[in-house]
Specification:
Elements lengths: L12 H4 L4 H16 L7 H20 L8 H9 L8 H16 L6 E6 L4 E2 L3 E2 L1 E7 L9 E4 L20 E5 L5 E9 L10 E9 L8 E6 L9 E2 L5 E5 L2 E4 L5 E2 L5 E5 L5 E5 L3 E3 L4 E8 L8 E3 L2 E5 L2 E6 L2 E3 L9 E6 L5 E3 L1 E4 L6 E4 L2 E4 L5 E6 L13 H11 L4 E2 L2 E3 L5 H14 L6 E2 L2 E4 L9 E5 L15 H11 L5 E5 L17 E6 L2 E2 L1 H9 L5 E4 L15 E2 L2 E2 L8 E6 L4 H9 L3 E4 L6 E6 L2 E2 L3 E2 L4 E9 L4 E8 L2 E7 L14 E9 L23 E10 L2 E8 L8 E5 L13 E8 L3 E9 L6 E6 L2 E2 L13 E2 L2 E6 L8 E7 L2 E9 L7 E9 L6 E9 L4 E4 L2 E3 L6
Parallel strand pairs: 2-14, 15-25, 16-26, 27-28, 28-30, 29-31, 34-36, 43-62
Antiparallel strand pairs: 1-4, 3-10, 4-9, 5-8, 5-12, 6-9, 7-8, 11-14, 12-13, 15-17, 17-22, 18-21, 19-20, 19-24, 23-26, 24-25, 27-39, 31-32, 32-33, 34-35, 37-38, 39-40, 40-61, 41-42, 41-44, 44-59, 45-46, 45-60, 47-52, 47-58, 48-51, 48-53, 49-52, 50-51, 53-56, 54-55, 57-58, 60-61, 60-62
Length: 879
């Protein structure tokens, strides 16, 4: 079983490890036990004991700077928790990983990987990279294999069959007589099939053995046969992986530290400003002006000059710049200073001289003497430590410099984390944290399937605290017990999320103070509501769950011409605190003084109930009054007040204005709005029945819009889009749509999961009999995380016809078959000028046994949403 030790030149493990003496004895005994009896053949208790030794061994190796195979910590957790039975692949992998750890502990035995290629590649460009394996002391015998693994998040094809095709990959050796035959090998995990083993290209060696010092080169994007090259990902990242695994001839693939390359953004096509949300009169304010490519990446190349407008009036000029490798692409970001001498709302917009590149910053509320500020942060993101991509420093750099966050956590999955990585994460968190600029909290994601508790992010107020990982606390109650045993609850924060659904029937009152209701996976307002319905007092935050090193400003992505599970633009969490300091922000989060937003929109919500801030619990009173001020990043569509799960008040802000005034130069603006629920069971079940499942998947809306009696002057998707998959275009058709020869239709492709997506149309010549027909192709629910209880739904084709004439200021809503829910297609006509700053007062007299909870939801016309955290009136405090 540990045959690698028999190879000439291999050191015995006791020499190579440099482990503590007691642990070394346990490792030696483990190796002997596996040689005597493989783990799949032993009793469950013995398998668990062996896994515990491997767990301690892997952690000790990582703390010594040694390499640990990617899936080792995942595997031992499955065995330690008893989730493996006889013959399970995790039991077999345990023995294989012991062999891998023994070999990796011997310096020079296995050899090394290196990479050659461009120092930085433009996103979505075609390149050529060469990964070279240099053979170590362990030869590669005939029959050995080279597996061309692929990180599942790259989304770029690797193929070995078509020399003229994209992604053509070849292999060659410096050893005369060595021949490579194409084959395949299955691999599971981030470097292969994420949900199950997927066959990937491999090459089998024949003709000659490879000896120490020989080189094997894998060429990605080989152009020698006329191919265009290897397409790099469409997103910027400082460490995109090109993993290669080597089987030396005994059937076991060995893994190596993965070669990586850097991807940067392309040409500037948009500009985005980031500003503080609440400032004082006379205070120095810094606004970051970031030029972006079509994928929201920081732009490279020539950066245009910009005219800066403040509230529509000229304010400043930003000179043209260069963003390139020489200046680390810093030229795409310009810092603008401002001071405001009077209270009010300030809005910056930006425009290149030719008008081709335009954008805006989030609104700034200037107050005479603000007692609290609104700080924005990311509580859920990943990089290459787990199944994501990118370095730890790259993650924090993006959060500080690109997303301009106020607070940030790197919440790596604990199933892929060892003690060495946890130490590195804490060291980086400390290094990047600076009160007044960016506050970084160490944290991780407790990663367990829905049946045993679901995913929960864990954060610490202080650095260098021990984690309570799922390997040692495999069920949710064990996590809570472990945190209470080690920490003061005031120094810990736990946030469950819905993608792998947290158990809304179980919550720790002391540490679980917030719930994530929106991420790149979708919008899950119901998830927060389920906790509230059970009496748990939790606030709301949004996040991204980004896996590409883009915390706080993370667009949804498509992978290999399909939608990924993370297809929405990620959200944000906002917290009200008196200062941008470690304790102030952490205390604000624990006090539930929070808002959640979608699309990384910094929508300002100022709200109180009977004078108490959001997150407050009030004694019973019949008089309940909510005051709200909503300052949007776009015109607002509606405000909803939710009481104990029921919408009790709605203000439709699209009706505030004369719709007839929407016509300028003979044009009128209409919006076609698509929406689908993400609630797991919809009309066939609910949390009240005790049924638990992961969220309903996303619904793809692909189809067309045809006009009769009107012409399309322009069509666009509004709001943040998934750059690889969302689209809308106007195209010619064979049939005149309006009876006047205007041969056109609007073709769209987008997806929803708990949120609205909006196609905006500018129409000309709208006649008295004008109609708009929406046709949607049949499709199937997608993007759910296993395990699930309910089967995916099939969605039939949709055809809805709306009359444009007489629509007025009403919104026409049509329910369509969504399987377990009724999804919606709606049409509304917009007034000429929207309302982006609204003050609302609403109240009621009510006395309800057991009390009530309230929150407010604000939706913009671009589909972006913001939520206040709840208030509780007359409810029994948790204890």
């Amino acid at each position: 079983m540990i045959a690698v030790l028999a190879v000439a030149g291999a050191s015995p493990p006791s020499v190579a490890q440099a482990l503590p003496a007691e642990l070394q004895q346990q490792v030696d005994a483990l190796i002997a036990a596996i040689e005597d009896q493989p783990t799949p053949a032993v009793a469950e208790d013995e398998a668990r004991r062996r896994a515990e030794v491997v767990w301690r061994w892997a952690n000790a190796r990582s703390l010594l700077g040694g390499f640990v195979p990617l899936n080792t910590t995942l595997m031992v957790g499955r065995v330690m928790s008893g989730q493996s039975g006889a013959g399970d692949r995790f039991l077999e992998q345990l023995d294989d990983d012991v062999r891998r750890l023994v070999a990796a502990a011997d310096p020079g035995l296995l050899g090394t990987l290196s990479i050659e290629g461009p120092p930085a590649a433009i996103a979505d460009s075609l390149q050529t990279y060469r990964v070279t394996y240099t053979v170590g002391r362990l030869p590669v015998r005939a029959g050995g294999r080279f597996l061309i693994a692929r990180h599942f998040l790259t989304g770029t094809p690797i193929q070995v069959d078509d020399a003229a095709g994209e992604g053509y990959t070849t292999i060659a050796s410096s050893r005369p007589g060595a021949v490579f035959e194409r084959t395949e090998a299955p691999i599971v995990g981030p470097h292969g099939g994420f949900r199950g083993a997927t066959p990937l290209p491999a090459f089998r060696l024949s003709g000659a053995d490879l000896q120490p010092g020989d080189r094997v080169t894998v060429t990605y994007g080989d152009r020698s046969g006329g191919g265009p090259g290897y397409r790099v990902p469409s997103y910027s990242n400082d460490a995109v992986a090109l993993p290669v695994y080597v089987d030396h001839g005994d059937g076991l693939f060995h893994e190596f530290p993965t070669p990586t390359f850097k991807v940067v953004g392309g040409a500037a096509v948009a500009v985005q400003g980031f500003a503080p949300s609440i400032v004082a009169v006379g205070e120095r304010v810094e606004i970051s002006v970031r030029s972006e490519d079509a994928g929201y990446n920081r732009a490279s190349g020539a950066i245009p000059s910009y005219q800066v407008l403040l509230n529509g009036a000229p304010y400043a000029e930003i000179p043209a710049a260069k963003s390139n490798l020489a200046n680390d692409y810093a030229g795409a970001i310009h810092l603008l200073e401002a001071r405001f001498e009077a209270p009010g709302v300030q809005r910056f917009t930006f425009r290149s001289p030719d008008g081709a590149v335009v954008g805006q910053a989030n609104p700034i509320l200037v107050e005479a003497d603000p007692q609290v500020r609104l700080y924005w942060g990311e509580t859920h993101g990943h990089c290459g430590f787990a199944e994501g991509l990118g370095s730890v420093d790259g993650y924090f750099r993006f959060g500080r410099d690109d997303a301009r966050l106020d607070f940030l956590t790197l919440s790596e999955h604990d199933i892929w984390m060892d003690d060495g990585e946890w130490r590195t994460l804490n060291e980086a968190s400390r290094r990047w944290s600076q009160d007044g600029r960016l506050v970084v909290y160490p944290g991780y994601e407790w990663t367990a399937n829905r049946q045993v508790g679901g995913h929960h992010n864990v954060f610490y107020r202080h650095f260098d605290q021990p984690r309570v990982p799922s390997q040692e606390a495999p069920v949710l109650s064990a996590l809570y017990r472990g945190l209470h045993a080690r920490f003061d609850p005031d120094d810990v924060l736990v946030i469950p999320h819905a993608h792998q659904a947290g158990d809304w029937r179980l919550s720790d009152f002391d540490t679980e103070r917030l719930v994530e209701i929106m991420s790149g996976h979708g919008t899950f307002e119901w998830f927060g509501r389920y906790y509230l319905e059970r009496g748990f007092q939790v606030g709301f935050v949004g996040a991204s769950d980004d896996h590409l090193g883009h915390p706080g400003y993370s667009p949804g992505r498509g992978l290999a011409n399909r939608r990924s599970n993370i297809h929405q633009f990620g959200g944000l969490g906002g917290v009200f605190a008196p200062a941008k300091g470690r304790d102030e922000i952490f205390d604000g989060l624990r006090a539930r003084r929070t808002v959640a937003t979608s699309g990384a929109e910094r929508i300002i919500l100022l709200a109180d109930l009977n004078g108490r801030p959001m997150g407050s619990s009030l004694a019973m009173t019949e008089e309940r009054g909510i005051r709200l001020r909503a300052i949007g990043t776009a015109p607002l569509a509606r405000i909803e007040v939710v009481r104990s799960g029921e919408v009790v008040h709605v203000e439709d802000l699209t009706r505030q204005g004369d719709p007839a005034a929407a016509s300028t130069d003979g044009r009128a603006r209409y919006q076609v709005v698509f929406s689908s629920s993400s609630e797991p069971f919809g009309k066939f079940g609910s949390a009240g029945q005790g049924i638990r499942d992961n969220p309903r998947g996303h619904r793809r809306w692909g189809g067309s819009i045809a006009l009769r009696g009107a012409r399309v002057a322009a069509a666009r998707l509004v709001g943040k889009v998934a750059p690889d998959t969302d689209s809308v275009r106007v195209e010619a058709t064979a049939e005149g749509n309006d009876g006047r020869g205007a041969k056109q239709r609007v073709v769209f492709d987008l997806a929803t999961r708990g949120i609205e997506r909006v196609v905006e149309l500018e129409l000309e010549g709208v006649g008295d009999e004008a109609t708009l027909e929406v046709s949607v192709n049949p499709t199937r629910e997608a993007g759910r995380a296993p395990p699930v209880e309910r089967e995916d739904s099939d969605f039939p084709a949709v055809r809805e016809v709306f009359r444009l004439a007489g629509l007025g200021d009403e919104t026409a809503v049509r329910a369509v078959d969504g399987g377990v829910t009724e999804d919606r297609v709606a049409l509304r006509r917009l007034p000429a000028a929207g309302v982006d700053d609204v003050t609302m007062r609403w109240g009621e007299e009510r006395s309800a046994p057991g009390g009530d909870w309230y929150y407010v939801k604000v939706t913009q016309i671009d589909g972006a949403v913001a939520w206040t955290s709840p208030w509780w009136v007359g409810t029994e405090p948790p204890r």
